[in-house]
């Protein structure tokens, strides 16, 4: 029998919704219980030259025009597109902390009139499509109560409120609505973890049974 292809699993949500926590737990779980290799990625990938420009922008030590930084975030995903595709084709599952959903909603939340959600989506078209996007849903106030925000550029309550609203709009987009599973991220870490595992199990089965090529 041919080797099963790997799956592309994405975590999304507001800052402090628990993405990095759940991403690490899922990677560990799949490594122990799954039958495939697992690659753990995060965007932005701050290790590349483009990623370092993004890091400086987020830290506030450099400025970028809104469209330019949007395209740099996108280019930072395209840098790894081939790596992701090859991994999946070779049977490795890829788990990603943020993807193009963040790319679109954070840029659109800036309320720049020539940078709406539709414009933001364009440079992302053609990137490997996730088999599942786990949207860790929490309101901005509860997220902020998990230790307060840091000093990065977008870690402000009004920005986070707009980001959450825009994540809602991404969810009803015809092309994407079946990819996204909403998880109540306000529950305790173990409860969220179980919900994630169950949603991932269903998504993996759907791919392996041929329901989703
Ligand atoms: P993100 O990557 O989405 O910004 P993190 O995983 O870094 O979020 O979590 C942010 C903070 O909240 C961390 O201190 C983490 O330990 C804590 N945390 C994560 N998940 C939960 C949860 N379900 N309940 C309470 N605190 C959580
Ligand atoms: N972010 C992240 C964007 O604005 N666009 C993107 O494409 C991506 C992937 O960068 F404020 C924002 C979202 C967040 C910051 O934070 C990255 P973390 O803590 O590295 O996830
Ligand atoms: Mg994180």
UniProtKB/TrEMBL annotation:
Kinase in keyword set: yes
Keywords, sorted A to Z: ATP-binding, Kinase, Nucleotide biosynthesis, Nucleotide-binding, Transferase
InterPro entries, per database record: P-loop_NTPase (IPR027417), Thymidylate_kin-like_dom (IPR039430), Thymidylate_kin_CS (IPR018095), Thymidylate_kinase (IPR018094)
Broad class of enzyme this protein falls into: transferase
Pathway named in the protein's UniProt entry: Pyrimidine metabolism; dTTP biosynthesis
Gene3D superfamilies the record matches: P-loop containing nucleotide triphosphate hydrolases
GO BP: dTDP biosynthetic process; dTTP biosynthetic process; dUDP biosynthetic process
Pfam families, per database record: Thymidylate_kin (PF02223)
Enzyme Commission number, as recorded: 2.7.4.9
UniProt GO cellular component terms: cytosol; nucleus
Record domain Thymidylate kinase-like: where: 11-194
Listed transmembrane segments: none
GO molecular function, one term: nucleoside diphosphate kinase activity
Superkingdom of the source species: Eukaryota
Family designation: Belongs to the thymidylate kinase family.
Alphabetical list of HAMAP family matching this protein: Thymidylate_kinase
Name this polypeptide is given: Thymidylate kinase
Source organism (scientific name): Acrodontium crateriforme
């Amino acid at each position: 029998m041919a080797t099963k292809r790997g799956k592309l699993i994405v975590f999304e949500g507001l800052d402090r919704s628990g993405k990095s926590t759940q991403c690490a737990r899922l990677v560990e779980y799949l490594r122990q219980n799954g039958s495939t290799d697992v690659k753990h990625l995060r965007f932005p990938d701050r290790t590349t030259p483009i990623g370092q420009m993004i890091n400086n922008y987020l830290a506030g030590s450099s400025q970028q025009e809104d469209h330019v930084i949007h395209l740099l975030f996108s280019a930072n995903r395209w840098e790894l597109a081939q790596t992701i595709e090859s991994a999946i084709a070779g049977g490795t599952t890829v788990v990603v902390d943020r993807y193009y959903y963040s790319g679109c909603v954070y840029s659109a939340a800036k309320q720049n009139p020539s940078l709406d959600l539709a414009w933001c989506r364009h440079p992302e078209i053609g990137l490997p499509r996730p088999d599942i996007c786990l949207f860790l849903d929490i309101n901005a106030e509860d997220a902020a109560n998990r230790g307060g925000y840091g000093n990065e550029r977008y870690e402000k309550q009004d920005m986070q409120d707009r980001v959450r609203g825009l994540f809602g709009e991404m969810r009803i987009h015809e092309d994407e609505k079946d990819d996204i599973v909403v998880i109540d991220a306000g529950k305790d870490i173990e409860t969220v973890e179980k919900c994630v595992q169950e949603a991932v199990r269903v998504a993996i089965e759907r791919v392996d049974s041929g329901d989703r090529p």
